Each structure stands twice: as C-alpha cells, then as structure tokens.
Amino acid sequence: MSNWKLIRLNFGQTPAHFGEVGIGLEESRERVRSDTLFSALISSYARLFGTQKVEELLGNFQQSPCFRLSSTFIYRYQKLKYTYYLPKPLAFPKKYPIGNDLEFTKTYKKLSYLPLEVWQRWYQGEGFTDSDRLELIHTTNKTAKDNDPLHKAGTFDYNQAFKIDKNPKVAIDRTTRSTNFYHTGFVHFESHPNEDKSKPENHSGLYFILHFPTTNPHLEKEIQATLIFLGEEGLGGERSSGAGRFKMEWLDLTPEWKKVVQHQQSNYCLISLFWDDYDSISPELLNHGACYDIQERGGWIASSPSGYQKRRKMVRMFTEGSVFSACPQGKLANVTPERFKDHQVYRSGVSLSLPISINS
After folding, report:
1. Which secondary structure element, helix H or strand E, spans residue 115, and what is its range?
2. HSE-up (13 A, CA, CB side) for residue 356
3. pLDDT grade, residue 91 (50/70/90)?
4. Whole-prediction pTM
C-alpha cells in the first residue's frame, strides 16, 4: 500500500536564496526544484546516518525508487485557509475555447501557477467554463471583481506570496585584501501576524508532495528526521549567512489532495523534473498530444572530502507542467565530473506526476 505525505516548509521571516543555472548570485527564484531538493535531502541524510546508509538508499533508487518527491511550490495561509499552487499544465484544460480566446489569451498565458481548487476543476473536474472565460476577459479589461470565482480562489495572487530583494555584500580577497562589491538576491515569504494573537499568523512558504510506493514506517521516520535537520541547516544558498532555515510540517493529505492524487485519467502532468536515458524513453510517451518543455540542469558539488568545488555534468530534463499520455517514471542521472574520485554524484530525474484530463 502506498503512502502520500504533504510537507510544508515555513521560513517565517528568514530569507532564502534559490539560484538557478546561469542566473548568478544577483538573482533568486521563489522555489526549489525536485532535483535540488533531492540533493539537499540526500546530503543531510548522509550526515545523519552515514555513508553506508546513503549508499544503500541510492542503490535502492537504481533498482526501484523507494520514494518520489515533487518540486516545491508556493502555499499561502490567509483567512484561516491554505491555498496550494500547482504548475499550470502546458496542455489546455477540458472545454478550453481554442481559437476563440483572443479576448483573454494574454491573461491566461500569464498564469504559470494555479490554486489547487482551480487546477482540480480545470484538469480533473468539469473543465474550463464560460464563466471562466468571462472572468478572464474582465481581468484583461481590468473590470473583474474580488469576489469573482477565479479571483476569490487566489488565481491572480501568486506573486503576492513572496518578494525578492537584492542585498549588497562585500567580498574581501584573503591575499590582497582588496574588496569587491556585489549583490545577492533573496526571497522573502509573507509573515504577517493577525490582530487576534490567539489565531495563527497569515503567512506563506513552500510545500512539496512525498510519495512512498510501499508503506515503510522506518524509512518515513528517517526522511522526517532528515527534513528536520535540513530545516536547521538551511535550504538553498547563502546558508552561512543564516538563509534558508525553515520549520517543517509532516502532514497527511487533506481530502482535497486525496481526491487529486487518486483521480483516474489517461494523461499525466509533471509536478517534478523528469529525466531518463534517451534510448529508454518510450516513443509513445512523447506522442498522442504530449506537451513538454526541457531545461538544462547543472550546478556545483556542494562539498567533497578533498575540499574543492567541481561543476557537475549538465543534463537536460523535462520540466514541471509537462504533459504526457503515460505516467513517466524517470531515474537518477550520474553527473559525476570527470577525474572526480571522491564519490559518485547523482541528480534526480525520478518523477512525480498527477493524472489530468486535457482538451482533445
């Protein structure tokens, strides 16, 4: 029997730095993708349980993944309600008026993430409705009202959950003592206390979905302990400055989420990155209306016994929101640099996806 968990990461007023390949220290994303989250998890797991245990865990992944995790996404807690955002699938939802969307297509295309309520209705429920079309038109014309269904669900509030600032910093050369002035981007999540101190504060943070294909209480406890430890150490960059620290909530799925993961459909939308050997990808996976995007993933090895940094090999992965006609599985990609002998380095392309119905 499989087991699903919803993990919330509450950063409070602690900033975080989530970099991407090629954007430099000056920029930061608002979330962490599944391969980066997996690497941070495995690194913390090794520190907690030792080299032998982590080698056994990675060995199991080579045969059959003992868990799958999504990328992190934004959640908001407002007015005693949690709103979870999911990536908008790259395929149109059921009943979407293809060819008759000129009045609102720009507004629709700007929606990269949807509240779970809207996501479920569009891609697992009744689909796109005429009232959705009218509200998008009103939004385009700036005549929409706050109590309109899409607005009330938080469809257009994604960017209000966080802000990204650039903080000035100074680097001092150890040899010449010369200085170099630069900026580093940090993401700050909402953290506003209510006037009524007896109620939880309004806030935002990150969440991800964790799926254990078979029930394994011992492994679940180890992963839970690892996430607590990771929260104390910090997720992302600039951890030496205290960035990225969070408090973790280990939760069962709500009824709404159970309905989403148990839904039966013939198409699947990625909520993680996905990678497989080119020769191992079934041609049928990329046919029959598949819609996908691909991104290069790279980066540096966080640490090594020899004490020097090396850049990992680059791999190209399918991104979140990609849609396939079959459930993609994925595997670990060996990204060990040439002449790096300390240990093997992997990037996770093990995928997690949700069933959806799309416009045919």
Report:
1. strand 113-115
2. 34
3. very high
4. 0.90
